[in-house]
Amino acid sequence: MTAARKPRVALFATCLADTLYPETAKAVLRLLERLGCEVDFPLGQTCCGQMHYNTGYRDEALPLARRYAEVFDGYDYVVAPSGSCAGMVREIHPGLCGPSSAVERTYELSEFLVDVLGVTDVGAYFPHKVTYHPTCHSLRMLGVGDRPLRLLREVRGLELVELPQAEQCCGFGGTFALKNAETSTAMLADKMRCVQHTGAQVLTAGDNSCLMHIGGGLSRLRTGVRAVHLAEILASTEEHPWVATP
Amino acid sequence: MGRNPVTWLGSPTFPRAARTALGDTQLRTNLRKATTTIRAKRARAVAELADWERLRRAGEAIKNDVLANLDTYLVRLEEAVTARGGVVHWARDAEEANRIVFDLARAKGADEVVKVKSMATAEIGLNEYLRARGVRPVETDLAELIVQLGNDRPSHILVPAIHRNRSEIKEIFSRAMAEPPDSDDPRVLAEAARRHLRRRFLSAKVAVSGANFAVADTGSVVVVESEGNGRMCLTLPETLITVMGIEKLVPTWRDLEVFLQLLPRSSTAERMNPYTSVWTGVTPGDGPGEFHLVLLDNGRTATLADEVGRQALRCIRCSACLNVCPVYERTGGQAYGSVYPGPIGAILAPQLAGDMTDKQAASLPYASSLCGACYEVCPVRINIPEALTHLRARAVEARPKHTAEALAMSSAGWVFRDPRRYEAAQRAGSLSRFLAGSDGTIKRLPWPGSKWTSTRDVPAVPKESFRMWWRRNRG
Ligand code: SF4
């Protein structure tokens, strides 16, 4: 990255964050601007088509993949706060509608921070006890590895505790959570037991989808443990600390 | 217990079968214990080899070559087996294969056959076929014996009785054996089984085996096992019948070397399995005087025609994917309704069954959260998640176009195709705030959302989506 020109980054909010978790998208925006990027949010974006594709509705996924390539064309980078959606774009879109510059330049947030911007200390402050769940698609489809942990370790005030059986799937799996609701819930129960075992106040991950699932379970059981997206932790500073949205 | 080939006749769809298993505390405990232990052991065994990734790629490449040139290699195998005094039979489907075995057994006047290591015969329902015609099949693999004596179904590729614990096994043995075990100590149980089987081995005239591999060059057939009972089956009886899926070939002995490293570490987490038996045709005065090799298609060539789905035929039945699968760990193998459970079963069984209009078969590719753990461990790099989504697409094609799900999917697609419609939907969605409690979460949604909210809260759609915020502040 040259000092002369700010990298032009398109934020791919993902349909889930755009619609249900706008705070995550705002956090990515704040964070990237703080780190010197010029961020745009192309309003033509909608959804990467993962739900359709993974459930077997390829004809519905195809126009969404094409739209993605068009809308995000011409930026230096596209950044998404989701390993799952970034994985869908990078691993599946080319097979659906061929290669595109947008696809090649798409990064999951922690990858972008560590690999492209070359930072692990993003100047964040988050005075809570946190445990990290490596979501399956971040872990296995994209292979983000320990990048999120390296970022979290540099956050001031944050106490990081290890999650037992971290690499076990939480049971979300998109429409799996509805089609096999009971199996999904059994997997969730085990995941929640591990989360509670850590004594953490906050569970974080790089995917709102899994956080919605685990967080929804933790909320139902009134555990008091909050599910917070990694971007929101990294965006939090002493001047603008993270506040829980209702 | 009738069943059609590949999937058990009358099996409920996966979600329904899973429900029963999920409520079974003992089953869940047995499975969790077994899979967690083997997972850790496998990881250690694999980490010992610096070139594991290269071995996996070699295994993948050899199997791909086999599948691409199956016709050539099969003919070569047939020639080699015949040249060494064996007889090769070709079976298009379960019925043909069963008939071949039964006719051979009858020709020998056998009213009992000893069996070892054969998923292929389980796939075609050979035991039921023989029993119905007065020939008693005796399983000699310890775990298969437990399943057989318990009138049960297998629930794992390698350890068909994985869902049973020691005291359950003692129960089963006590009911079925002339000399019942007097404790549930594993050694006592194994000894009881040994005594029970010994008589069978000595009296059986015909043995039926499966095969892990067959070497096309020399016509040699290979069985890899832990207990040594296979060795008894393969050497004592006068006639040996091997039933093998046509994809189990490897071209040469050098290729075999790769798999003899990949298989034991992946399946039992051992560097080398205790017994590897190889037999080539017949040798006068040594071992069975007659050898028959039944080459089974049963949906395999049809599977081969599917470019994405065919990778399932690379499978060497190591069971590593079952042991890491979070869905399998909760539901056990019987929920999959076939002799091939777990991730590999979810992609293999529906393809071999060859009928995506069958509700049970079509439910199998959805029996996964697509977490990808199976792909990560598979020694022949079968991209199971890719095959799963591919088969889901085939299941969708085979279904009527106007299901509630198809309509929901197409209207969601219609919304996502146009940002204006999408934003309008976001605004409409924020009406869901009326459903939310004071904490901003929704506790109960109407169907199908109720499947979510029966155990999970869901946040209400916020008043302002990110794009609305962006337009207001940055637009
Ligand atoms: S699919 Fe792969 S991991 Fe699963 S049993 Fe077959 S070879 Fe083993």
UniProtKB/TrEMBL annotation, chain A:
<feature type="domain" description="Cysteine-rich">
    <location>
        <begin position="130"/>
        <end position="214"/>
    </location>
</feature>
<protein>
    <submittedName>
        <fullName>Fe-S oxidoreductase</fullName>
    </submittedName>
</protein>
<dbReference type="InterPro" id="IPR004017">
    <property type="entry name" value="Cys_rich_dom"/>
</dbReference>
<feature type="domain" description="Cysteine-rich">
    <location>
        <begin position="9"/>
        <end position="89"/>
    </location>
</feature>
<dbReference type="GO" id="GO:0005829">
    <property type="term" value="C:cytosol"/>
</dbReference>
<dbReference type="GO" id="GO:0016491">
    <property type="term" value="F:oxidoreductase activity"/>
</dbReference>
<dbReference type="Pfam" id="PF02754">
    <property type="entry name" value="CCG"/>
</dbReference>
Automatic annotation (TrEMBL), chain B:
<dbReference type="InterPro" id="IPR009051">
    <property type="entry name" value="Helical_ferredxn"/>
</dbReference>
<keyword id="KW-0411">Iron-sulfur</keyword>
<dbReference type="InterPro" id="IPR017900">
    <property type="entry name" value="4Fe4S_Fe_S_CS"/>
</dbReference>
<dbReference type="InterPro" id="IPR037171">
    <property type="entry name" value="NagB/RpiA_transferase-like"/>
</dbReference>
<protein>
    <submittedName>
        <fullName>(4Fe-4S) cluster-containing protein</fullName>
    </submittedName>
</protein>
<keyword id="KW-0004">4Fe-4S</keyword>
<dbReference type="InterPro" id="IPR004452">
    <property type="entry name" value="LutB/LldF"/>
</dbReference>
<dbReference type="InterPro" id="IPR024185">
    <property type="entry name" value="FTHF_cligase-like_sf"/>
</dbReference>
<dbReference type="Pfam" id="PF02589">
    <property type="entry name" value="LUD_dom"/>
</dbReference>
<feature type="domain" description="LUD">
    <location>
        <begin position="76"/>
        <end position="295"/>
    </location>
</feature>
<dbReference type="InterPro" id="IPR003741">
    <property type="entry name" value="LUD_dom"/>
</dbReference>
<feature type="domain" description="4Fe-4S ferredoxin-type">
    <location>
        <begin position="312"/>
        <end position="382"/>
    </location>
</feature>
<keyword id="KW-0408">Iron</keyword>
<dbReference type="GO" id="GO:0046872">
    <property type="term" value="F:metal ion binding"/>
</dbReference>
<dbReference type="InterPro" id="IPR017896">
    <property type="entry name" value="4Fe4S_Fe-S-bd"/>
</dbReference>
<keyword id="KW-0249">Electron transport</keyword>
<keyword id="KW-0479">Metal-binding</keyword>
<dbReference type="GO" id="GO:0006089">
    <property type="term" value="P:lactate metabolic process"/>
</dbReference>
<dbReference type="InterPro" id="IPR024569">
    <property type="entry name" value="LutB_C"/>
</dbReference>
<dbReference type="GO" id="GO:0051539">
    <property type="term" value="F:4 iron, 4 sulfur cluster binding"/>
</dbReference>
<dbReference type="Pfam" id="PF11870">
    <property type="entry name" value="LutB_C"/>
</dbReference>
<dbReference type="Pfam" id="PF13183">
    <property type="entry name" value="Fer4_8"/>
</dbReference>
